[in-house]
């Protein structure tokens, strides 16, 4: 009996403590006079995401709070202010940037990934961003074209083989292997050749980092305190072995280059960082530490591989499903590039291909929800945003707003001709984010996407096949087509 009382009391106290912990922040939006969906004590509003899936939910909430500038959202126990008003979003990302420098993340990264640009905050982020930015200047990116050309040609060869045997192609995997090869060569000068050998060590370790243990991530999402506990116990969240593999690989590449005196000849990230190290006599830009170099190299793999492969696969799929757009894109390629691989300047003149990529990223933006953290009480357009509040911009819902984009599910690259683009709010299209913390790899990504699209479209036409499922059905939580992105290729020449 006594044991039963002890167990019962402990249970009641534990549930009470859990209830208090989970509901501690509920009430924040009421105090601020901001509407939000009804909450449950444990999930806050997160239960709705499980019910509807990320994408339908974003659209649903956006419609429900149509006339609101902002609305509230409890991501479990964490209040997130959703910014619907595009002028407000612009002020947060640009004008008031200094109060919104940091991005919200579920957990802090562990070494050797700790000092990466994606998750750095405040002045540390500013210093690393300033040191790394020159690596992504137009002139430096231009020199990376050779790496893109080599890998685009391998992709074309693989697609040609599929075309010759009449094989249907699931685009995501094939584009993913291409994007990884480009990151390995533009990042580290490595020819890992995932397109021919998908099981190479670099690819296996990169995929492990990209796919962390789902159970641990879910646990941290429900109870952020779990991360603190794991850190105290020395247990990393991302595969430590994989992170160390990359850190050692980078060190090895740097040492080899120093020994062989090849600095300045390879035109990849490592090369440019080493040159920046040597040249950086300007006191304003301090050198990067080795830990910061590791962090950036890993950030480039994480940020530049899945994103590019998603955009490439969706763009090819949309072109296959919209033959008149594909034909127009091919005409532009023929007129501007003929049969040869395009150089940097030719790529800049491909306006229709650019429109197709933008339309594809509107429909399927890899960064479908963008966040910042408020570091100081701020009032924007009459809305009070308290210190530490996470603010989020519902990119996917904005991109599918019928008032901004009539017939939003239709693939229509003309939405991005110069006239239509100029008539829209600058924050109505946010595939690369906005402001000083927008995607640092945008130029490289666009160059890569355009070069590889030209290479494919010069020789092949993507068309629907028996496995194609269109309209695309997105997975509930990730930007992935549940039935894959299947096409067939027809030879042009
Ligand atoms: C089509 C491909 C890509 C898309 C759609 C994309 C999208 C994004 C988005 C939405 C952000 C957040 C921006 C913000 O918070 O305002 C971001 C940040 C970032 N991206 Fe990309 N990205 C792409 C390719 C790349 C590539 C190729 C690289 C590197 C080689 C890269 C490196 C980064 C880094 C390092 C950040 C963090 C920047 C910072 O916090 O200062 N991205 N990207």
TrEMBL record:
The keyword GTP-binding does not apply. SUPFAM superfamilies: Cytochrome P450. Heme binds at residue 439. It is found in: Endoplasmic reticulum membrane; Microsome membrane. It holds the Pfam family p450. Residues 1-17 form the signal peptide. The chain crosses the membrane at residues 214-238, 297-321. Its cofactor is heme. Keywords: Endoplasmic reticulum, Heme, Iron, Membrane, Metal-binding, Microsome, Monooxygenase, Oxidoreductase, Signal, Transmembrane, Transmembrane helix. One of its GO terms (molecular function) is steroid hydroxylase activity. The keyword Manganese does not apply. Belongs to the cytochrome P450 family. This is DnaJ subfamily B member 13.
């Amino acid at each position: 009996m006594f044991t039963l009382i002890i167990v019962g009391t402990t249970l009641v106290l534990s549930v009470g403590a859990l209830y208090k912990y989970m509901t501690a922040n509920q009430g924040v939006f009421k105090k601020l006079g901001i509407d939000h969906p009804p909450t449950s004590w444990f999930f806050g509003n997160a239960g709705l995401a499980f019910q509807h899936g990320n994408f339908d939910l974003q659209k649903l909430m956006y419609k429900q709070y149509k006339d609101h500038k902002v609305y509230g959202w409890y991501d479990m126990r964490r209040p997130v202010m959703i910014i619907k008003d595009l002028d407000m979003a612009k002020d947060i990302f640009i004008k008031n940037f200094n109060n919104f420098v940091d991005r919200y993340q579920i957990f802090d990264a562990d070494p050797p990934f700790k000092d990466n640009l994606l998750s750095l905050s405040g002045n540390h982020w500013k210093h690393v961003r300033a040191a790394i930015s020159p690596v992504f200047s137009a002139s430096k990116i231009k020199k990376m074209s050779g790496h893109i050309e080599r890998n685009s040609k391998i992709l074309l060869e693989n697609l040609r083989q599929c075309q010759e045997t009449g094989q249907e192609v699931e685009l995501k995997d094939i584009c993913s292997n291409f994007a990884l090869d480009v990151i390995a060569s533009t990042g580290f000068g490595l020819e890992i050749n995932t397109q021919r050998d998908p099981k190479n060590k670099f690819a296996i370790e990169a995929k492990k980092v990209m796919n962390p243990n789902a159970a641990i991530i879910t646990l941290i999402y429900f109870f952020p305190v779990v991360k603190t506990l794991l850190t105290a116990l020395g247990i990393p969240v991302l595969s430590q072995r994989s992170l160390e593999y990359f850190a050692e690989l980078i060190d090895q590449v740097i040492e080899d280059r120093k020994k062989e005196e090849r600095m300045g000849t390879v035109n990849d990230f490592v090369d440019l960082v080493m040159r920046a190290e040597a040249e950086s006599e300007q006191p304003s830009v301090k050198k990067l530490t080795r830990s910061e170099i590791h962090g950036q190299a890993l950030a480039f793999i994480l940020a530049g591989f899945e994103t590019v492969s998603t955009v490439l696969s969706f763009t090819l799929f949309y072109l296959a499903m919209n033959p008149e757009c594909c034909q127009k894109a091919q005409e532009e390629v023929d007129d501007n590039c003929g049969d040869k691989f395009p150089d940097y300047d030719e790529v800049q003149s491909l306006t229709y291909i650019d429109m197709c990529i933008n339309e594809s990223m509107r429909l399927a933006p890899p960064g479908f929800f963008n966040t910042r953290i408020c570091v100081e009480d701020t009032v924007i357009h009459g809305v009070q945003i308290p210190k530490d509040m996470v603010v989020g911009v519902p990119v996917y819902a904005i991109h599918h707003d019928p008032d901004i984009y009539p017939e939003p599910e239709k693939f229509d690259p003309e939405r991005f001709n110069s006239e239509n683009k100029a008539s829209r709010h600058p924050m109505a299209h946010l595939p690369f984010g906005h402001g000083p913390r927008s995607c640092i790899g945008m130029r490289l990504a666009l160059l890569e996407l355009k070069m590889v699209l030209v290479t494919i479209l010069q020789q092949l036409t993507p068309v629907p096949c028996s496995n194609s499922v269109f309209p695309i059905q997105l997975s509930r939580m990730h930007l992935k087509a549940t039935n894959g992105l299947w096409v067939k290729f027809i030879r042009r020449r």
